[in-house]
Amino acid sequence: AELLVLNGPNLNLLGAREPQHYGRTTLAEINDRLARQAQAAGHRATFFQSNAEHELVERVQQAAAAGVAFIIINPAAFTHTSVALRDALAATGIPFIEVHLSNVHAREPFRRHSYFSDLAAGVISGLGAQGYELALAAVIEKLKTQDP
Ligand code: DQA
């Protein structure tokens, strides 16, 4: 199946950005692992990162037309602010898993609220870069039971 991995603002800086929160792994390294993990399971993952809310909204809208079966998304700071990105995901109806590298519940109080979690198939927070791989493993399992 077709899978989409979305990353929000400042995640292009992974590796160098506040490593005490986000680790030393770059987004390119994360995406490379996910691409191989998806391919090994017979799926195809595409990747998109943007610092711009409207670009993420448009990418989600396109995902429906592109027949994307599952989305893995780290909305980054938009987690706590973006009704628009939430609405885009709700509009497509494509199931998604929300991933955060850091444990958002162990940080500033404003990070505890997510505009996405109640719509998400699941949420992974605090497991670093491995969180994306765990999300993809879950997606792969879900797609097995969904396939006819
Ligand atoms: C984040 C957590 C957010 O609160 C923050 O704004 C980010 C990254 C994470 O992956 O831990 O940019 O989504």
TrEMBL record:
UniProt xrefs under Gene3D superfamilies: Dehydroquinase, class II (3.40.50.9100)
Matches recorded under Pfam families: DHquinase_II
Site residues by UniProt (Transition state stabilizer): 17
Residues reported in the UniProt entry to bind substrate: 74, 80, 87, 101-102, 111
GO biological process, one term: aromatic amino acid family biosynthetic process
Subunit record text: Homododecamer.
Protein name as catalogued: 3-dehydroquinate dehydratase
Organism from which the protein derives: Sulfurifustis variabilis
